[in-house]
Design goal:
It is a single chain. By secondary structure, the chain is mainly beta. The protein has no helices and ten strands. The strands form four sheets. Strands 1-7-6 form a three-stranded antiparallel β-sheet, with no helix packed on it. Strands 2-4-3 form a three-stranded antiparallel β-sheet, with no helix packed on it. A two-stranded parallel sheet has the order 5-8. A hairpin with a 2-residue loop joins strand 3 and strand 4. It starts with 13 loop residues before the first strand and ends with a strand.
């Protein structure tokens, strides 16, 4: 499974908000769950649920810093978005870096030139 661009995208373009069930249970595990901060995770709905990992991704997860939000931007608080890191062509797979902690790392098969060999936080 994967997620593919149905049209070209420019660098820095927000593709959409990741929506889903908010999880506050620290023991909850899922292969799709994404960190929201403040002890919260989100179990994403389709289609962002199927974004695959790459050590050299073309997209990234984006949060708005709550400290910089104005009153009329407060609706962006605690929300997660997907944004392009570079230009993306039609039909290209959309990928993110899962950046998992070392105790959850799995061998990586992304085949990127910069592949770390493991799906793990770069540091």
């Amino acid at each position: 499974q994967g997620l593919y661009a149905e049209k070209p995208f420019r660098r820095g373009q927000v593709l959409g908000q990741i929506k889903g069930r908010i999880i506050t249970d620290p023991e909850y595990t899922s292969r799709y769950c994404m960190e929201l901060g403040n002890g919260q995770m989100i179990e994403p709905e389709c289609s962002f649920r199927y974004m695959n990992h790459s050590c050299d991704p073309n997209c990234e997860l984006m949060y708005y810093d709550p400290e910089t939000l104005t009153e009329d931007q407060d609706h962006l608080r605690d929300k997660l978005f997907v944004q392009t890191r570079r230009k993306i062509t039609f039909g290209e797979e959309l990928t993110i870096d899962y950046a998992w902690p070392a105790d959850h790392a799995l061998q990586c098969g992304c085949q990127a030139k910069k592949c770390r060999g493991w799906i793990v936080y770069p540091d």
